[in-house]
């Protein structure tokens, strides 16, 4: 058992932990980053599967994500645009693929009017929300005690409008059933991206990717830390007093003045805290849970949909894969589609055999792109639910009522322990941008405290 002493021990080598560690080191503090896995990056993972480079975790960068964009530029990485030339596809309740261009998809004039009205209402509400303090809104308690689903049903009884308004923050972002989280949680999700309209605009929210894969961000950040990153070191026990911490991992112990917990909050309970965390944290952390989505990658000899004049952008609240996009790698001759299967549909698909799951998902993609979609040369499902050190995707959110009840305490330190993770972010919530912001924030706080 190795024993070392550092100024700060960081638990977790994802974007948040590695950002914090780099910033602390730059300020002259010594660090050790302990990572449970045998790789860095956490929910960022670029891998080659059967010869195809796939973004198994996070990949897209949107124009508002300043912290991520600065990091990408600072690391010397290049970005490229998601392919979006041509028609998009919407599958409505009739099960038919309708092509469209522009922002509005083909629904009846009445449904279109309702969607526009409710979107305007939502944008106005979102504009009043500070993503870093949604609980501070005067109507936070009211908005946090009604489910997203119930609120939408109060606005209209047009089922197609409800389904389409529900899914941008539901299946597509929080990846939980819409009855399982509040209107306030939904508004936070939208506020973290600037507006509800931004969130539904694929050209905004899914704008760019990094050439060679987004995992290069944590890989390069880790490279700068050199020997200060320790892989395969799951922290099992964290002893703490006001004076400092002792982090005990499988094969090493780190004594430090501060600890940064840079892991998904649903995993805090895997660590034994000595003394136990305060009552508030014990309670609060139980009200956060991971969403669940399967990210499906289908690689074809060519991007055949482009020849049909399709952009690859497709969605439907009636389909198993509620959204899908052209995800072809930069400079690649082969074409890649990425589709997403969320919450209860994902649960259901993991109850059937792998062959049947593949068949059902590809059939759903074929509803958007035609029969050619049934025959990819490479097929892969990212299943973060079975990853011990993540346990879901994309991130954690509060159950109904939890955000206004506990939100203000989420980032409050406990003695020498600080918390940083995309799941705790305001701006950039659930995204890499939020992870970087949280990493920067705790680093700044610790530097100030230690240098005071
Ligand atoms: P993250 O979970 O990445 O890192 C935590 C680290 O802590 C992990 O490496 C884990 O192994 C480690 N750990 C846990 N317990 C430990 C212990 N006891 N001891 C030591 N180490 C421990 N975002 C985005 O901006 N654009 C996108 O397109 C997407 N798309 C997307 C798709 C999919 C499938 C996923 C799963 C996620 C995304 N995201 C995304 C979200 C984004 O990937 C995510 O928000 C951040 O990468 C999270 O970074 P963090 O550092 O906060 O946590």
TrEMBL record:
FAD binds at residues 35-36, 235. It comes from the Bacteria. Residues 16-447 form the Amine oxidase domain. InterPro entries: Amino_oxidase, FAD/NAD-bd_sf, Flavin_amine_oxidase, Flavin_MAO. Keywords: Oxidoreductase. Transmembrane segments: none annotated. GO terms for molecular function: oxidoreductase activity. Its cofactor is FAD. Substrate binds at residue 340. The keyword Oxidoreductase applies. Pfam families: Amino_oxidase. PANTHER family: AMINE OXIDASE, AMINE OXIDASE [FLAVIN-CONTAINING] B. Belongs to the flavin monoamine oxidase family. This is Putrescine oxidase.
